[in-house]
Amino acid sequence: MRACYLHACLKRVQQEYLTNSSIRERFGIAKKNSAQASRIIREAVATDMIKAHDPNAAPKFMKYVPFWA
Known about the structure:
The chain is mainly α.
């Protein structure tokens, strides 16, 4: 979870967003295992380390930021 949070912080500094594909790239997760990246994001959201940038976005287009952003 901490690595996911730090990834969100890095993306925020770069004026980008944490996404499922950015998590897959960061952790070397294959596209066919995208559910694993989704689980990591879901757990980070549940522990309030990251939050949705636009809560009304479709799940496929969801972007995340650190909790303080």
